[in-house]
Amino acid sequence: MRVPLSWLRTFVDWQDDVAELASALTARGLSVETVDWPGRGCAGIVAARINAISPHPTRSNLSVVELSDGHNLANVVTSATGIAPGDTVPWARPGGILPGWRTVKVRSFDGVPSAGLLCSCLDLGCALEESETLLPLDQPVGTDLVRALFLDDPVLEIELTPNYATHCQSILGVAREVAALTGGRLRMPDRMTTGECALDSFRLNVACPELCSRYVARLVRWEREPAPTPLWMVRHLCQCGIRSLSPIVDITNYVMLELGQPLHAFDRAHLHGDTVCVRRALPGEHLTTLDGREHFLQATDLVIADGMDPIALAGVMGGTGTSITEATLDVVLESAVFSADAVGHTARAHGLHSEAAQRFSRGVDPAGVTAASDRAIALLRMVGGTVYGERTFGPAEPPPRSVSLRGARLRQWMGVRLSTSAAGRLLSALGFEIQADGADRLRVNVPSWRSDVHDEVDLIEEVCRMYGYERIPATLPEGAPTTVARPPLERTADAARKVALGAGFTEVIPYTYHSRELWDRLRIPPEHPWHQAVAIANPMRVDQEVLRTTTAASLLRVLETNARYRRLDVACFEVGPVFASGTHGIAEIAVLGLAGMGCIAPQTWQGPGTPCDFFRLKGTICALAARLGIAGDRLIWSVPAAGELPTLHPGRAALLALDGVTIGWAGQCHPNVQEAFGLPDPAVLAEIQLEPLWAVDRSIVFQPIPRYPAVRRDIALLVPVERSAAEVQSALHQAATSLPDLRTEVRLFDLYQGKGVPAGWRSLAFTLWFQAERTLRDEEVDQAMALVVRAVTDAVGASLRGADLSAWQPPH
Amino acid sequence: MRVQYLGRKGVITSALRVLGQLPAEERPAQGALANQLRTEIGQALEEARGALARRTLDRRLVEETIDITLPGYPPTIGHPHPLIILRNDIEDIFAAMGFTMSLGPEIEDEWHNFEALNIPPGHPAREMQDSFYIDAAPTGTGRLLLRTQMSPVQIRFMRAQAGRLPVRMVAPGRVYRRDDDATHSPMFHQCEGLLVDHGISFAHLKGVLSALAHRLFGPSTRIRFRPSYFPFTEPSVEVDVGCTLCNGHGCRTCKQSGWVEVLGAGMVHPRVLEAGGYDPEEVSGFAFGLGIDRLAMLRYQVDDIRAFYEGDMRCSEQF
Ligand SMILES: [Zn+2]
Fold it and tell me: Are A485 and B100 an interchain contact pair (Cβ–Cβ within 8 Å)?
């Protein structure tokens, strides 16, 4: 909301400068966002009479004007049109300063000097846009226009929170706050009451009093065309961003800005049946509003109607049929209270967020209806109007309301030892009426304009605000220390982040929603579980249609973004929810998602980069499980069924189960998916649920450290390719663990296929560590190895490639 | 050389061996002489050998010189997300003040997200926080929506506490609103907190939030508490800190005001305490909320919020 200080000063006085006033209001909750002060330092602009006008000798669009300000004569070159000798015009003298700190100089136009310039309406802050016509001045020649039009007036730009919008969205409302701050007295503006009115045929009919508690209609007429809007009013409206239209409309706008009560004027000559009726719209009715839009009305819309049709959406906007025109000489002036909910609903339903609707939908002062009408009548008289009739509905004053305030309660909430009498003084400055109500208790009458105050806590807020938040001390709460627990899921997420970061993955937080179209790019058919998504009913954009069922949907888009910038080495992860929609309703599942393409560690001068491939993801997930104390043999990786993971390469995908329950998957994306996301290299993806990881039993049990060194043997096996590494490894492990009083560990250290290895076979090389609670002799270990080799060759059809391959290198 | 002089057939050894043939009175003197000679030659030999070894080592050390200006091998470590860094900082500060962390669902119902927070249907705050609704049948507690604030976690936490005191909790998480520009993302992050106990006052709110601001922004940070409005708190307050970019002189970030808004807070509205299962005549409390994205934008001078969500590695790798 914009508050010109010159206007505010008509209501209340204060001592502080602008900046102090702004910060004082901000500290009381009227947040002054900026002080708009375009005319700061303005000077040297006066009203001058045109003595003569002559054309410019060379430039046809200019004329040379001889001016007099009562003391001096001057020649000014101007492009203004529609001026004549004898007119009074705004003249900026050389040396003067125009709004925006523009210094006025003597300038030459093709050899003709111009002593300053004629100011445009925009220069004088009396128009919202540039125009060729000059402001028609009514001031005497020589008048200092800086003072007369308060050109150096600062405007406070106040951002109102919804609770202050009820009573502060007017100059009067802000003036009340200033008066309460400074202790100054509030001056009310000139008003006129109607006095005795002759009876008239005009009728007012309020058909739904539950939506309109008060209606005042006054009849005003003119003998001839109304006088123009006074310049000070044009200027004030303009400062508030409202265009001057016609005297009658300007006055309704002016009173709305000043007192917060929206008014509307109907041209009585166009009312059918000489009636104004407040009622709900009927089916099939429609109305063209002042902005030129046609609206089809619903029974939920509250309208003003004449004897036949709706003529306005009540409290929102008037219709074109009864609007004020240049020919209007007879007016019905409406000042009323409409239901905040009804106005809010209609404004939303028809997309009409007018100034009036904003005020009504937040609530207006029911006792201010007559006052606003009185004020408007005083102003309409200034432009030649005469009041000749009145019809009213509803009580002028709403029933009084009071709220109790307990001193003990107030002190406890504030944390300040404040007496009820001190609190009462703070409240009465705001217009609350205070009565003592027993010891340490106040009965507070709420003024009619404070529809936001209902409860004791509302009064506590007002006391705190007026006391000043800055004066309330800052103390830390006492009390026994509490046990601080981090939720288990969050601790698991912490571990996931640490492991993923340590493994070289960078954290991203992609959006959790996407378009339906993405399913095609992910190759997800409609019957697939990933297609059973939670849908957003009111997306803003197409990419907000559904909540994701997998992080693949989000992470592939991250890879896509990076690929677009030719960033082809990416390893990233996220910890976040996926959403599932099934027969049991909606589930949110916290997961770790991993994705990568290219290298996870870049090539350096000392060696090639480390690729981010399937096994990088698998290793990271295993490390996370280990970190959380889950023994490796409880994780089982298996090949998915056909179509189970359609986004992935069928030969490069795996499901992960923990204790037999599937908790995740990993794999390389399908070539079609890679293409659909514009990725030059294959990407890998993985996802693992976090909750099962903390829900399982921890199984770290410390093993005593052996006192004897372990003995190492390496073995290379030729294995048929259809035998998986896990099969070979588990055969080795089984054979090795069957040896009495020996502990063994088996680790794959090399895999080779190619020259030297027959087709259909591959070479797998393992290290075996033997450990016993005594010094192991070589013969003993050789014996054990022989057993192991026999067992594994039998089990998986492997054949020994070399018993000790510690020096064996695959041929290159 | 050692063999020539000191070996078993060496000159000195032979000399010692012939000592026995010398007259008895000469033997000690000649013997001492020979022994001394043997020692000196031995020492000289040791020195020569040491010098040789040193020279060899010196040469080797020179040969083994590396170019220490070559870059070090970068360890394979990922980059943390700026929002998570800040979130962790905030969590640590509150954990140290005894606040328990709490989580809640991202898909909420209208009761938890609005009604319980004193935002009845038709309340302007429901429009201010334009929500994403879920395409599903309404539940007994209203339509489903993506939570627009972390406040529903306060309600869930209070109800889970079932009347136990004190309630000291902090809830960071992601929230959703239908808003999209350089400073608003449809998905963003908030952290809310709640303290309910006997005798909690506005002064305690100021104490805890001042401590937070000083820990987050530095001990000499200026703090301003300004009245504001939230439906679920009363009195409500907005907390500004002095703009660190311009030291309060005014700049683009602080819109020339010298202050930057960082927190919203207030005394928990009695109706919200009731919705949480507490008697507002018995206990009081304060709640606060801050936008993690906004603070991260301030801290790292990020001018477009979308940078946090695009996953562009050129952004991620700066953290
Ligand atoms: Zn600044």
Answer: yes
